[in-house]
Amino acid sequence: MTHNVFVYGTLKRNEPNHHWLSNSKNGVSKFIAVGKTDKKYPLIIATKYNIPFILHKPGLGHHVEGEIYEVDNKMLGNLDILEDHPNYYIREIDNIEIKKDDVDNTETMKCWIYFLKSFKEELLTKPMLENYSSAGSHGLPYLESNNESTLDDLDEHVVC
């Protein structure tokens, strides 16, 4: 069985964690298209590792741009482990708009998206992005952790 997954942060092409999607040991993934969320969401950068998150607050922020991948069950399971679903991120299906060659022609595709659902309201005061790049003008490049847990750092931003 295959699934469509929308990625908006470090898993995109040319981003620090894209190797997760391209490593066949994690399962199969195939790039489908560039798209954007049909609803507006806050895409923010937080934690000392500068991790991008979409906060589950529909209607606030921007139509977030990202990439759609078709993945197999094994890859989806490994992405769940990477994103610590359902402990921190919640994976939900939402509509993603794909632009066709014609500017006025769009297609909508249902995709899994990883959201930070239970978060402290202070995160809504952070700048909200439309498109994430670790090397973006925001000046907050993603920092990989070596021995420290990024999830422990996330605890200060999550409501349990």
Helices, strands, pairings?
Blueprint (H helix, E strand, L loop, with lengths): L1 E6 L11 H4 L6 E13 L1 E4 L4 E4 L7 E11 H10 L6 E11 L6 E11 L33 H5 L6
Antiparallel strand pairs: 1-5, 2-5, 2-6, 3-4, 6-7
Q: How would you sum up this structure, described in words?
A:
The chain has 160 residues and is mostly beta strands. The chain has 3 helices and 7 strands, in the order βαββββαββα. The model has no long low-confidence stretch (mean pLDDT 91). The termini are far apart. The longest helix has 10 residues, at 73-82. It is 12% helix and 38% strand. The strands form 2 sheets. Strands 1-5-2-6-7 form a 5-stranded antiparallel β-sheet. A hairpin with a 4-residue loop joins β3 (43-46) and β4 (51-54). The protein is globular and about 35 Å long.
Average pLDDT metric: 91
Helix proportion range: 10-25%
Strand and helix order: EHEEEEHEEH
Q: Please describe the biggest sheet, giving its number of strands, its sense, and whether it closes into a barrel.
A: 5 strands, antiparallel
